[in-house]
Write a structure and sequence with these properties.
By secondary structure, the chain is of the alpha/beta class. It contains nine helices and seven strands.
Length: 220
């Protein structure tokens, strides 16, 4: 439906807000008009918050989770089990798992999944830094908690093969005694209580909690 705006400023604001995911032009118009009705200080506070978020937000240099500092609160928490690493697709998945209160380990945020159709390959994800965390030692379990989609399964398989190649390459080197020290962590995957082709962040807390508790060994 064509909308006739009496103000070019209003139209520009609606155009920008409607670019947000899940926001159509009708909703964008309703949100913009709502902001106009609010006290000017409320709108200024919103704009300032968004500006600070865009310019000052950081990503944890360990797990790539969103953070206010170089190391996020989860990685910096001494009460977390640093020997267990949960591999997830995005920041929303970290929030979803944290809401279950069933997991006390650390995370590794890949920043997506392998999807050739979308032009996303292994080099576009934080896979190498995951391999480096495992190589550094101290990890006894890696939990694959990617969405049960074709892309998620492909990414699980790729990471698993990289880990296997890592141990094989070490064993074939000249320092076999060093290779023996690097034991491959236990690799598990969350139970398929999460529906096939469903995104992890949209799974209810009870189902996700059961999937974490019922995780099984990852096999190919």
């Amino acid at each position: 439906m064509t909308q006739n705006f009496s103000s070019h400023l209003l139209q520009r604001a609606v155009d920008e807000v409607s670019c947000l995911p899940g926001i159509g032009r009708k909703t964008a118009l309703r949100l913009v008009l709502h902001l106009l009705r609010q006290d000017a200080r409320a709108t200024s506070t919103l704009c300032e918050s968004l500006s600070l978020l865009r310019n000052e937000v950081k990503y944890c240099r360990m797990c790539h989770n969103i953070s206010d500092t170089d190391i996020c609160e989860i990685c910096a928490n001494p009460k977390r089990d640093a020997s267990v690493l949960c591999v997830v697709e995005n920041i929303q998945d970290v929030m979803a798992i944290e809401s279950t209160n069933q997991y006390r380990g650390l995370y590794h945020v890949l920043g997506g999944v392998i999807s050739p159709m979308d032009g996303i390959g292994p080099s576009n994800l934080h896979i190498q830094s995951l391999i480096e965390r495992v190589t550094a030692g101290g990890i006894r379990e890696i939990i694959f908690a990617l969405s049960p989609t074709m892309e998620g399964d492909t990414t699980n398989y790729f990471i698993y093969k990289r880990l296997m190649q890592l141990t094989q390459t070490s064993a074939q080197g000249n320092f076999a005694h060093e290779a023996q020290k690097m034991n491959l962590p236990r690799i598990t995957i969350i139970a398929r209580g999460v529906a096939q082709n469903d995104e992890l962040q949209h799974t209810d807390e009870a189902t996700l909690s059961r999937a974490l508790v019922g995780r099984t060994l990852f096999t190919i």
